[in-house]
């Protein structure tokens, strides 16, 4: 399989409402789409989003590294996905997000040519699972804004079938966050409710939070402390915490997972394709978590389109058990890039929604061109 040509689309898509995190406010999704055309004229699509605080990527750097990788990829043989990662690493050091974007587009082409949905191809790699139809993946909804708004959003979304929740904390004083958590946990009793501090707490506050009665009903607390703190702090937090500890910014790939497993310093992790460098390495991470009885959360960066959503859902169907839910972030976009966006069904995404071969989402090129980021244009390779 050879790539004949490629187009790179740097996009900026407004969110329905801004999402506030402890260290940033996101009002629009900065994401990059890649379209590859093979020698048969088939088109394969990939996506990766910027994440300055998680991967260090900005729109300029991401577009630059995707362009570099793609230009070097023209004319190479891409017939065996098992070799993708080695070939990427021979072209470019690090740059996981750009590799994830190219890998998604190549796997879209490969699975289209094999006439198989991407999730089924990935699942084939996971010999632990039987051939039954995968169970639907529970979608996780983020809550934000005033407590009144969070309560009314939670009630409305619960009516639609959502049972997995994430409360962003770290912007307010600890006592106020604890109060929000207590009130929301009471409303959402029986559901999987989590918090995410995006590194905002110091160790003392994180321990206080995890030992408090108000937080006792949480299913997990994600990345309370900064990723650059010493391992000893993570071990201490896990030992003192009454609730399971999740990690996100601390985990980029298999080596970090192995270090934290060795230290017994967490209870589960959030995987994103922009961190792992693609679906195949992410599936290895998911299997490692499962072997060690650690929980899995899947997440798109806030926010990515239906394309990344479908790729990540495919990983979920292949991994088999997404106990901490899937944060499918296209649900926060004002505008999606395809005619039929991937939507929640009773708070879940189902394998039947991705029945076509390939990733299962084909962007509408006219819609893509409507949201090219200001000051940027399509790049042809
Ligand atoms: Mg997170």
Descriptive overview:
There is one protein chain. By secondary structure, this protein is of the alpha/beta class. It has two domains: 3-116 and 362-380, Enolase-like, N-terminal domain (Enolase-like, domain 1, 2-Layer Sandwich); 122-354, Alpha-Beta Barrel (TIM Barrel). Helix content is 37%, strand content 20%. The protein contains 13 helices and 14 strands. Strands 5-6-7-8-9-10-11-12 form an eight-stranded parallel sheet. Helix 1 packs across helix 3, helix 4 (118-124) runs parallel beside helix 12 (306-319) and helix 11 runs parallel beside helix 12 (306-319). It starts with a strand and ends with a strand. Bound molecules: magnesium ion.
Give the topology, please.
Blueprint: E1 3-20, E2 25-38, E3 43-49, H1 59-73, H2 84-91, H3 96-113, H4 118-124, E4 137-138, E5 140-143, H5 147-159, E6 164-168, H6 174-187, E7 192-196, H7 203-211, E8 220-222, H8 231-240, E9 245-247, H9 254-262, E10 268-271, H10 273-276, H11 279-291, E11 295-299, H12 306-319, E12 326-327, E13 348-349, H13 365-370, E14 379-380
Parallel strand pairs: 5-6, 6-7, 7-8, 8-9, 9-10, 10-11, 11-12
Antiparallel strand pairs: 1-2, 1-14, 2-3, 4-13
This protein binds magnesium ion.
The site of magnesium ion (MG) has 6 residues, from loops.
The percentage of residues in β strands lies in 15-25%
Q: Say which molecules are bound, naming each kind only once.
A: magnesium ion
Shape: globular
Tally the beta strands.
Answer: 14
User: What percent of residues adopt helix (DSSP H or I)?
Assistant: 25-40%
Write out the CATH superfamily name of the largest domain.
Enolase-like C-terminal domain
Measured on Cα atoms, how large is the radius of gyration?
Answer: 20 Å
Uncertain stretches of 5 or more adjacent residues: none
Numbering strands along the chain, what is their spatial order in the largest sheet? 5-6-7-8-9-10-11-12
End-to-end CA span: 17 Å
Integer count of domains? 2
- Biggest sheet descriptor: 8 strands, parallel
Structural class: alpha/beta
Q: What name does the CATH topology of the largest domain carry?
A: TIM Barrel
Mean pLDDT across every amino acid position: 95
Order of helices and strands: EEEHHHHEEHEHEHEHEHEHHEHEEHE
The top level CATH class name of the largest domain: Alpha Beta
Q: What is the CATH-assigned architecture of the largest domain? A: Alpha-Beta Barrel
Number of helical elements? 13
